[in-house]
């Protein structure tokens, strides 16, 4: 039976949930959407969106290296994203006083290096990587129970970390000089956050694809922060928007056979543009 | 502080600096760019060690009693991209360094959280910021931002305020208003104030004493004792003239560039 969008919502949802692979995909996407919305909220707050995007590129050589070594792709994602975070954080630490100015250059270098290494590893592998296209743009197929479990564990760890450091991390992000004077470990928090961001990105990539992490990592936080300056409300909105984007993307992908990343990203960009436009209206 | 000296990157910033501030005093720290004014504040906060001499703050080693010091770092500008409310920023001054997350709606259930938000609003009232504290800080004017940041420094009800160029970047009416606000806190509640400034004139009606840092050394005393042609000439090691205008303002002329500073800038207008 071919999936057909009937525009009768209950029956469409029933169709979606009648396949175990769709249930797995939806569960994985939901877990990732919640985590990415929260991590992304802090990432946008800290102005580290570029670093987040670059870390996602690290999963390309990660996947290729895992294929070469005969390991599960996810292992490559996590290892290489963490490696990218270590490089970016390490360069920032070694850079000393000039580190702020050099930071984006270092991040750019990591991104370029990631793509080059990925291409090389892919050539060495020789075979056809399951599907390069779904690696880059996301796929709803083939999420196994085990992978859902892994993603849930990663999400749990990431959220637990953020729950512990949320307030000092927020302090260090909006008001570094005072946080430093108040003995908040600003630099340690910056390094730890990058590592956690690396893990979160590695998980997000498995839903959105390498190139389209924007949809779940950047857009929900960006939209929520446009709509309200209140911290709690904005975080909650970010999570809800993330879930909406993930579900709509997967749903449309199921009915059309195009990549979920495409639909999620388009919806995310439209919502982002609307939110920005809404804020610039002079209405109070 | 007695006989204090600081070296940064192998270079002595200042040495033989004596600083004695009484409780409840309002003291300004003046001097040209690069004279080490902010460095002095860092020493008092325990963020920078002394190369020589000794320092004691609120009866203990520097840094030990930062809980009782309200600190305002050099002017931080929040642009319109900063989507954070003023009131949340003030709250960070109270509990920003605590681990964990505040629970949503905690104010409805926990007395401690209610007390915390009362302290935040009390600090905001002290600077007269009630009307704009709930707006995103990036949408507030420079003067409003600075008042909220002073509220942030006041929120722990400190015994001492350390303010790094709180008047920088403000227009003249706002400079006068912020200076008057700081003096009110100082006089009404006996809070000791150390304030770094470029221009002494907006502070003249309020100051008890000044510390003038220049040429790697310092002079301390009342405005009338320190900001004189003789004292400044000997500090800079070059002829300096202090002029008094008819409305009581001070103008310093002939001042050479301090060593290692970046460009000509008049310290005192």
Write the layout of secondary structure elements.
The complex is a heterodimer of chains A (284) and B (269).
Chain A lengths: L8 H9 L2 H27 L2 H21 L3 H22 L4 H27 L6 H6 L7 H30 L1 H6 L4 H23 L5 H14 L3 H26 L3 H21 L4
Helix pairs in contact in A: 2-7, 2-9, 2-10, 2-11, 3-4, 3-5, 3-9, 4-5, 4-9, 7-9, 10-11, 10-12, 11-12
Chain B lengths: L1 E7 L2 E7 L8 E5 L6 H8 L7 E3 L1 E2 L2 E2 L7 E4 L13 H10 L10 H4 L1 H16 L15 H13 L5 E5 L7 H18 L2 E5 L12 E6 L2 E5 L1 H4 L2 H8 L4 E4 L5 E4 L16
Helix pairs in contact in B: 2-4, 2-5, 4-5
Q: Characteristics of this structure?
A:
A: 284 residues, mainly alpha, 12 helices, B: 269 residues, alpha/beta, Rossmann fold, 6-stranded mixed sheet, 22% strand, disordered C terminus
Task: Write up what this structure looks like.
The complex is a heterodimer of chains A (284) and B (269). Chain A contains twelve helices and no strands. Chain A is mainly alpha-helical and 284 residues long. In chain A, helix 11 packs antiparallel against helix 12. Chain B has one domain: P-loop containing nucleotide triphosphate hydrolases (Rossmann fold), CATH 3.40.50. Chain B has 269 residues and is an alpha/beta fold. Chain B starts with a strand and ends in a 16-residue tail after the last strand. The relative contact order of chain B is 0.18. The longest helix of chain B is centred in the C-terminal third of the chain and has 18 residues. Chain B has a six-stranded mixed beta sheet with strand order 7-8-9-3-10-11, sandwiched between helices. Chains A and B meet through helix 7, helix 8 and helix 11 of A and helix 2 of B.
- Quaternary state, please? heterodimer
Order of helices and strands of chain A: HHHHHHHHHHHH
Give the distance, in angstroms, between the N- and C-terminal Cα atoms of chain A. 51 Å
Count of extended strands of chain A = 0
CATH architecture of chain B: 3-Layer(aba) Sandwich
Instruction: Give the strand order, joined by hyphens, for the main sheet of chain B.
Output: 7-8-9-3-10-11
Approximate shape of chain A: globular
What is the CATH topology descriptor of chain B?
Answer: Rossmann fold
